[in-house]
Amino acid sequence: MPMALRATIQNHWRTIEQQLGTQFNHAFWTECEPRRSTWIACRAVIAARNQGQEESMILAIQHAYYLQARNPSEAETLSTLATEIALDVQQFEIDLFSPHTNQQLAFEIQTSRQWPISGFPSLLIEHQRRIAKLPFNYADPGSTLKTLNTLVNP
Length: 154
What we know:
The chain is mainly alpha-helical. Helices cover 58% and strands 6% of the residues. It has 2 domains: 110 residues, Glutaredoxin (3-Layer(aba) Sandwich), CATH 3.40.30.10; 30 residues, no CATH class. The chain has 8 helices and 2 strands, in the order αααααααββα. A two-stranded antiparallel sheet has the order 1-2. Strand 1 and strand 2 form a beta hairpin. It is globular.
């Protein structure tokens, strides 16, 4: 990851800490080798989904990255997380690198490109076969709830 991007992300973390009180483990930036790619972490979520543990893997990846200074861009970290959430690790590792998982990820990326997303994070709702982007404010959910209510109860 280029140094300028590292600095930008670290500044985002500091801003979020100041505005919301969210905790981050800044040791990540000195103890890990940050990578720009999230492909392997995305594949790990799909591999965990195959075992019914998608949400558990998402949470494990977030905690590893933000709070534990562990790099979710490394297969070894992801395998350790799979162990920690009680997956069949052998099957997880097979699925992590399988062509089927790559195809599923490509499909999901292609699908997301058809949605009204201009950046990440984004919040969308599908209602009556229509997808709409919702505004969000981490400190005040009012605008999100207002838009959501308008879309669902016109």
